[in-house]
Description:
The longest helix is centred in the middle third of the chain and has 27 residues, at about 150-175. A hairpin with a 3-residue loop joins strand 11 (about 230) and strand 12 (about 235-240). The chain contains 6 helices and 13 strands. The protein is about 25% helix and about 30% strand. It is elongated and about 65 Å long. The protein has one domain (about 10-325). The strands form 2 sheets. The chain has an 11-stranded mixed β-sheet with strand order 3-11-12-13-10-9-4-5-6-8-7. The protein is an alpha+beta fold.
Amino acid sequence: MSIAIGQAGFTVDAWDPGYSAALAADALAELGPTSAELDLDVELLAADWRPVSPAPDTAPPGVMLIADGVRRIDARVWSNDAGAAPPSPGIAASYAAGIVRCTPGEGAPAELAAVEVRRSLFTASPYASDIKASAGTYRVETAADDSMEGLSLALQQRLTQLEVDLSVRCRDDDAGDGDLLIVDGPLRGRTHLPRTVGYIKTHHTAYLPAPQAGVVSALGPGQRTPVFLMGTSWRRHAWYLALPVRSAAPWAGIVRCEAGADMRPDEVVELADAITLALPSLAGVDYKDPRAPQNLVPIGGLEKLLRHRLGDPRLLYRSLRAAAGR
Length: 326
């Protein structure tokens, strides 16, 4: 929605202010070359970039599996290392992953294919043992170090692995090779999965040079940028696509998709067309989701279910306090 007051015009971001903006202000200010290694000539020469619509003969995926996960720190804990001082810090965390199965174009509701909840104690201490609380058991998972960053990274790695395990299991159950797996977030750690796309809703970094970033701004609903290769600490193919949106805010309705760097150009272009054709019908709506349209309807529903499955945080915290004896 664009609103003008007096002589000054301004735009209201479509996302609820309780969430970070879909396009970070620092990214908007730096729409120029970044330290990322880019190959912009994968599908079209950089000088020929323009909005791309899916080819007329593009077929939507027969089945889409959408994977997502949620995490929550239930308590910060200290492990008494066999009398050593000082105690080692850790976090008791609950995390869950799930898979939703969708059939594009049939109007059928999304189906929950798999869900799993785990509780773990993340610590670098070699002396830590499982916490057996009345509300659940927290299994020890070793972190590389005891900094909060190291503990949080260990939690994220376990969550990512859980998503991978569920995705492989669901694909084995489907016993087909025509499906397409969408993982909510970057593809890091999942590039080995076939026909898999990372789905990024929020833009913290402006990867494209100004001329190509201008193509992103010019995208209409159901269009995408040409495919390009991007390398930071890891390499992947990427493209931006536009979902239907009413807001005129910068890059409103824009998401970034990622695919494995080892795919052939024709393979990734075919994948990009299929995902661009399928996603607009799954776009979130603003009266239901504060992060619409980027938060796809199946993702929003899955997140809500997974957070519920994590359990009552107050109950878990009290049970951890009781297990500690105070």
